Amino acid sequence: MQRFKYILLILVFTISCKTKKHNTNKRDSKNDLVINVGKTFSVISKFDTIFKPNAPKRITRNIKLDNEGRLLIAAYDDIVRYNGDSFTKLVKPEGIESWYAFDVLEDSKENIWIASDQSGVFRIDSETGAVTNFTTKDGLGHLRNMCVYEDKAGNIWIGGQGGLSKYDGSKFTNFTLEDGLPHNDINTILEDNKGNIWFGTRGNAGLYDGNTFTEIKNDEGKSFFNVWSIIEDKSNNIWLVDSSGLWKHRNNTFTHELPDVWKIYEDTKGGFWYTGMLKGGSSTLKRIEASSLIDEKLEITEVFKTERMFFGVVEDKEGNLWIGGGDGIWQYNGETIEYYTGIIKK
Predict the structure, then answer these.
(1) 235 three-class SS
(2) From the CB of residue 234, how many other CB atoms can be counted at a distance below 10 Å?
(3) pLDDT (mean) for 209-225
(4) What are residue 340's DSSP bridge partners?
(5) Which residue from 48, 193, 276, 326 lies 20 to 30 Å from 171 (Cα-Cα)?
(6) pLDDT (0 to 100) of residue 252
(7) pLDDT at 4 over 70
(8) Annotated domain spans of the chain
(9) Any bridge partners for residue 89, and if so which?
(10) Is the pLDDT of residue 342 over 70?
(11) The whole model's pTM is what?
């Protein structure tokens, strides 16, 4: 009898769960998605794969917002815009089969910049649509680039395997080990509220105050290693992710907060999201509640995990969360998960 009551409770709970809204797009629901409510796995559901024309087909390491709040997606071969309904690929010039894009940016003048890991940097002019390919022949430091960033003065910073490059609108200035740069292989760039340029590398992390480069170290005086993500939150704290996980900068030093973190992101409500790669190849998306940052006792909720890869995270103007994937992108709207890809499975 007791066993019967237990089974009945499970059935009632399952039936009362909110059903997903109908969508006429072609879907594939064969992949299990595990959603964590609170701190205990309590619901096992399915994520939907939505096949959309022009959606990303290749690895998507970074997703940005353009000046109108639309998604701007670096999908390696293609740069893709998403307006909330459809995906559109930016047109490549004749002779270019792939951007080899690791990062993308729309600058304050509405020009599109593409960091290519094969071909230097591309700029698409906002007025004419003309594509300029900057290479080492134009003064760029290296052809293999991982990130692109605009500072408050309008300078464009490019990071790659040959150090840092700054473009002031007319020329490139390059910084390498010979100029005091702690490492030549740059993964990520950030300007803080004081105008300092932070950068993460495959070897360590550093800071440039406009005159001098300084290597950043943790609370034990040790160097960071393989830094993929640096952000500044709304309270002007710096958060850094390296191979050992998440670090927070407080009282002029970094302290370790969490392991197994890949990318960190702060949403409009002051909560933090991060992607992580777990042992065995699984990826996860977790949230740190904003209220728990006050007393520094982090309250973490695992939203979902999958056997596929996760990369960069961004929030759109409707409050949906988007995550870059291995051959597409994920959307989390607070209730459901959808996976968008341009690969049509037969």
Answers:
(1) coil
(2) 10
(3) 94
(4) 50, 329
(5) 193
(6) 85
(7) no
(8) 36-341
(9) 80
(10) yes
(11) 0.86
Exposed e or buried b per residue across 174-211, where buried means at least 16 C-beta atoms within 10 angstroms of its C-beta: bbeeeeebbbbbbbbbbbeeeeebbbbbbbbbbbbeee
Q: What is the DSSP letter of 217?
A: B
Distance in angstroms (rounded) separating the CA atoms of residues 259 and 248: 12
State phi, psi for 87 to the nearest 5 degrees.
-100, 140
Alpha-carbon span 240 to 228, nearest angstrom: 8
CB burial of 88-97 (b: ≥16 within 10 Å; e: otherwise) equals ebbeeeeeee
Give me the architecture of the 36-341 domain, per CATH: 7 Propeller (2.130)
DSSP string, 62-127: EEEE-TTS-EEEEEBTEEEEE-SS-EEEPPPPTT-S---EEEEEE-TTS-EEEEETTTEEEEE-TT
* Residue 43 predicted with pLDDT over 80: no
Instruction: Decide if pLDDT at 300 tops 70.
Output: yes
Predicted local distance difference test score (pLDDT) of residue 295? 66
Nearest residue to 206 (alpha-carbon basis) of 181, 231, 177, 242: 181
Instruction: Find where tokens 């959808």 sit.
Output: 338
Planar angle of CA 318, 273, 29, nearest 5 degrees? 70
Q: How far is CA 339 from CA 4, 8, 48, 98, 331, in A?
A: 37, 33, 6, 23, 6
**Contact between 175 and 186 (Cβ < 8 Å):** no
* The pairing of beta strand 48-51 with beta strand 337-341: parallel
End-to-end CA distance of the chain: 47
Q: Does the structure show a pLDDT above 60 at 124?
A: yes
pLDDT digits (tens, 9 = 90+) for 241-250: 999 999 999 8
Q: Which of 26, 57, 28 is nearest to 342 (CA)?
A: 57
In angstroms, the CA 98 to CA 82 distance is 19
